[in-house]
Amino acid sequence: MVVLLVGVFVAYSLARFLGEANEGLLSAQAVMRLAALKTVIALEVLLPIALYIGCIVGLGRLYSDWEVVAFRAGGVAETRLMLPAMLLATVIALCTLLLSLYARPWAYAELYASEAQAEAETDLARLPAGQFHVLADQGRTVFIGRREAATGRLDAVFLRGEGGDDLEVISAAHGDIQPAADSTDWQLTLADALIYRRGPDGEQVVARLGELALVVPGLKEKPRDYRVKSASTGQLLSREGNEERAELQWRLSNGVSTLLLAAVALPLSRTRPRSGRYARILIAVVLYALYFNAIGMARSAVEQGVASHLWWAPLALAVLLVGVLVAQRRTGV
Question: Which domain range does residue 47 map to?
Fold first, then answer.
């Protein structure tokens, strides 16, 4: 189940980041790194789901194939069969807790740093040819028909910049881009350039120049800002904000949720013989969705200062588990 869920998530992440790579906003190395970091972040959710569904499917097969009946006939108590599953759940819960407390904030910090670096590398000198590039943070659209990487020669160059009421459009048959001296900027030299400019007062200017030299600012990596998700657990303990409290409780609750979901999976796996090991998968999925939404709402309430903790959601799941176990014990189902 872990391999299946991680594979699906990696494929989803790659599809998302490859779209940005196709637009020239990310390199292949950056795509792989970002996808790996996203997977590390998602493991705190994927591991509990994998354990939850795995227990239901695996133990459900013992019931549907009459093996539990055979164990009972041989004098083996049903609780003895469940002990290995709970031992495994305890190990997975500890791993999930460590992921939430240490690996997740580290992965978020690296993710933010990689995204900032990738954004800083998205400038005119690195954009691939043959497609339009909309650089929203710079307020311009760029098209380069063909590029010679060795010489820096550009063909069919189109630049459109807009800021407020100002509009500037530049097109040229040929161009050349080279690093500016003693600077991170670039010098763009265009041959046979056609310029259209509209000022804030509506005045329009059209000009044609045999040669036009422009200084294009190179993008610089932005300084890292404090973000709650990338803050270490020690930082969260030393702060008293609502967001810090919600994030810390969320990290701590993941281990508890993993153990509770595994415990809930045990009664859900009990099916009648020959009824199929997937008989209660739909119920299990609905129950997990309800719990995930409940703890998400509880976290949002803590972030907004409406509630002081989110532990009512795991407590509600524990109460439901006790109720189901008592009902099964009375009915024998």
Answer: 2-120+225-331
* Lowest-confidence pick of 8-12, 59-63, 226-230: 59-63
Same structural domain, 165 and 236: no
Pair 271, 265: CB distance under 8 Å: no
Q: Flag the least confident range among 37-41, 101-105, 197-201.
A: 197-201
Residues 185 and 232 in one domain: no
Chosen domain end from 146, 181, 216: 216
Given the structure tokens 């041959």, which residue do they identify? 191
Phi then psi for residue 241, to 5 deg, are -75, 160
- Euclidean distance between CA atoms 242 and 247, whole angstroms: 9
Sheet of 204-216, strand order: 132-135, 140-148, 153-163, 166-179, 186-198, 204-216
Most confident of 134-138, 188-192, 300-304: 300-304
For residue 209, give the nearest of 171, 260, 248 by alpha carbon. Answer: 171
Tell me whether residue 81 is in a domain. Answer: yes
**96 phi/psi in degrees, rounded to 5:** -65, -40
Question: Can you give the pLDDT at residue 49?
Answer: 93
Number of domains in the chain: 2
Mean of pLDDT values over 103-110: 92
Range among 85-99, 154-168, 220-234 rated most confident: 85-99
Q: Give me the residue label for tokens 């740093």.
A: 113
What pTM was computed for the model? 0.69
Close Cβ partners of 220 (under 8 Å, ≥ 6 residues apart): 120, 184
Q: Same structural domain for residues 84 and 232?
A: yes
| Candidate ranges 35-44, 56-65, 175-184; pick with highest mean pLDDT | 35-44
Same domain (yes/no): 211, 98: no
Domain's final residue, options 197, 216, 235: 216
